[in-house]
Amino acid sequence: MYWQTSRYQIDLTRPKVMGIVNVTPDSFSDGGQHGSTLAAIRHCEQLIRDGADILDIGGESTRPGAPQVSLDEELDRVIPVLREAVRLGVPVSLDSYKPQVMQAALDLGADIINDIWALRWHEGDVGAPSLHATEVVAAHPRCGVCLMHMHRDPQTMQVAPMQGDVLPQVRDFLEQVAEDLQALGVEKSRIMLDPGIGFGKTVAQNFALLARQAELLQTGYPLLAGWSRKSSLAGMVPRTAPPGTALPASARLAPSLAAALLAAERGASVLRVHDVKETVQAMRVLEAIR
User: Fold this and answer.
1) Pick the catalytic residue: 16, 171, 201, 230?
2) How many domains does the chain have?
3) Rounded to 5 degrees, what are φ and ψ at 272?
């Protein structure tokens, strides 16, 4: 299986590691660390040295409760970084739900659109001229796209998480949006699915998505797994720890690696991570036993 993108046909025979580049002041784990253009570009270069197969660049935090960023501010954050990143010799993904940002990124040569809204959001939602994300992606001849499941929106998703068995709900939603996109002329080889770990699900539901990941693979699309430093891993502390003890985001490396390894072993094609070097090392173990 391969993932067709703007400039690259990505071989998914082995899981690929997607390095996160947050050009934001308020992301849940590394907000502010790579907020300037120069710092973000240097981080891109370091992630490639660490073994990243793909770079994922975003200019708006989608942590629970995060405020929306204006179109102009997001463009100011990500476009200078994208302009340099597309010269680094690896596929470049844009993490955004705004169609105009998508269009600007694709015009610069970006390879992938990674959208938490699964192309459902459009500029008209906030009073701007209407432009649908599906139009932007469908009009492009080759760009890859990752469609994610999110319950509600970043401002409210953890206020009232999903109820019941999430597997059929997530699977049916993702399958439908993927089919809708194909109906617009987008080839199946361009589409990746993401179950949206942490986006409007309880801790138990998130782990159910991992335990039963094979059911999502039955859709026939490759999967992206985004477990890195997620809050569902905060409870992975010694059994002797006092009640209520939780790991801060910066201390979730070990459980993040375990979740990534399990996701890959269960068939995930792309691992979206903060800690690229360590994840690449963990994946070498999986490659060795295979």
Assistant:
1) 230
2) 1
3) -95, 115
- Tokens of residue 257, six digits: 């690696």
Tokens, residue 133: 């994300």
Q: Do 219 and 230 contact (CB within 8 A), yes or no?
A: no
Active site residue 188: no
Point out the catalytic residue in the list 272, 277, 284, 290.
272
- Please name which of 10, 15, 52 lies closest in space to residue 142, comparing C-alpha atoms: 10
Query: What CATH number corresponds to the domain at position 211?
Result: 3.20.20.20
Burial class (CB in 10 A: 0-12, 13-18, 19+), 87: exposed
Q: Quick check: is 230 catalytic?
A: yes
For strands 9-11 and 2-4, give the pairing: antiparallel
Mapped onto helix, strand or coil, the DSSP state of residue 177 is: helix
Can you state the percent helix, strand and coil of the chain, rounding each to 5? 40, 15, 45
* Structural domain containing residue 152: 2-289
Q: What is the pLDDT along the chain (290 residues), one digit of tens a residue?
A: 999 999 999 999 999 999 999 998 844 454 455 568 999 999 999 999 999 999 999 999 887 777 889 999 999 999 999 999 999 999 999 999 999 999 999 999 999 999 999 999 865 544 455 789 999 999 999 999 999 999 877 777 677 788 999 999 999 999 999 999 999 999 999 999 999 999 999 999 999 999 999 999 999 999 999 999 999 999 998 889 898 899 999 999 999 999 999 999 999 999 999 999 999 999 999 999 98
DSSP 45: H
Give helix 166-183 / helix 203-211 axis angle, nearest 10°.
Answer: 70
Q: Are 12 and 2 in contact (CB under 8 A)?
A: yes
